[in-house]
Amino acid sequence: MPAVSVIVLVYKVEKYIERCARSLFGQTLEDIEYVFVDDCSTDRSMEILERVLEEYPQRRGQVKILHNEVNRGQAYSRRRGVEASSGDYIIHCDSDDWPEKGMYAALYAKASAENLDMVICGMRRVYPDHSEPFPDLNHTEDLLESLLYLDIHHYLLNKLVTRKAYEAGITWPQANMCEDTALITQLAYNCRNWGFVDECLYNYNYSPDSISSAGDSLPKVEQVRANAALALSFIESKGLAQKYARAARHLKCWAKFSALQLLRRYYLDFYPEVNLPFFFDGRFTLMERMGHLTKILGIHGISKMFNRKK
Fold first, then answer.
1. CA gyration radius for the chain?
2. Which of 66, 228, 265, 305 pairs with 141 at a CA distance of 20 to 30 A?
3. E-strand spans in 62-186?
4. CA distances in angstroms from 245 to 148, 166, 232, 249, 250, listed in the order given
5. Domain boundaries, the chain
6. Virtual CA dihedral for 19, 22, 23, 29, nearest 10 degrees?
7. What is the dihedral of CA 10, 224, 116, 171, to 10 degrees?
8. Taking residues 187-213, what's their average pLDDT?
9. What is the C-alpha separation between 199 and 202, in angstroms, rounded?
10. 165 confidence band (pLDDT: 50, 70, 90)
11. Which burial class, exposed, middle or buried, applies to 242 when counting CB atoms under 10 A from its CB (0-12, 13-18, 19+)?
C-alpha cells in the first residue's frame, strides 16, 4: 500500500499535461501512486501523458490510468479516482496545474511525523505574465469554521487527507462546479487533527478556458448552489447548524455572488435570506458589496463590473 495516492483528472489539457506529468513523475517522494482519470478527452492529452511516462520507467508500476466511458465531469471522476486508489493518504491534482517537486514528500513527512489526518500547504496562482500566492493559508483551531468562511479555500489540490476521512462516510457530490466545497466540508469534519506546511508548493494555473474560470451561466450557478447546499445540509445533519450559523450564512453569500451576472430576478431569489446580511459581511470587499447593491437595485450593466476572481 503506497503512502500517497495522487488523483489526476484529465480532460482537454494537451497544452499543459506534459508540464504536469513531469512534475508528478519527478516528485521526491518514492512511495507514491498516481491515478489518472481520462474523462473522454478528445485531444492529445492521453497520448502526451503516455509519451512522458515512457521517460520515467521507474514510475510505470505506480501509475493507474482509468478511462470514463462517457464524459462525466469532475465530481464523478474524482470519486472514481479515489475508489481506485490504495494510498494511506489521498490528494488531488488538476492536469493543467503542477506541484513543486518536493510537495508530496513535505506533506507526507508532516502527516506521518505528527500523526495528522490532514496537512495543508500554500498555493500559488499563476497567470500568463506573473504569479501570486493565495492569501488564505492560516493556522486555525477550527478548520470547519475556517472552510465555511473561506478563510481557507476549498481546493482539494493542496490538502493531503487520510484515507480514513473518506472511509468515515461522505456523500459524493453530483454537480461539477465547486464540488470541492461539498467534499472538503465533509472531509474536514472526519479529520481529528490537521497541520500546515508554510510553503507555496502547488501551482494553480489560472487559465480562462478552464472549467473553474469559465463565465457564469445558469447551469453552472445551479451546480454551485447544489454543492453549497450539500455542504450546509451535512453541517446541519451533524447538529452543528447553530454553532456555525454565521459561517454558514457567509457560505450562502459566497454562493450567491457566483450568480451576479445572471438576471436580477434570479439573483434576488438565490438564497434570498442573505440579501440584506450580505451588506454587513466584512469578509467581502467594498467592491463586491457594491456589486451586490447594484444588482439588488437593478442598476443594469454596472454589476457586470464586479466579477469575482475564482
1. 19
2. 228
3. 63-67, 89-94, 98-99, 118-126, 131-133, 159-162
4. 10, 25, 10, 6, 9
5. 4-211, 215-305
6. 170
7. -90
8. 84
9. 9
10. very high
11. exposed
Helix axis angle, 286-297 relative to 245-257, nearest 10°? 70
What pLDDT band is residue 248 in, cutting at 50, 70 and 90?
very high
Dihedral sign (CA 131, 161, 167, 246) = negative
Cell numbers standing for residue 254: 459566497
Region 213-225 average pLDDT: 78
Class of domain 4-211: alpha beta
- Residue with cell string 507514491: 32
pLDDT surpassing 90 at residue 301: no
Q: Is the dihedral of CA 97, 99, 104, 109 positive or negative?
A: negative
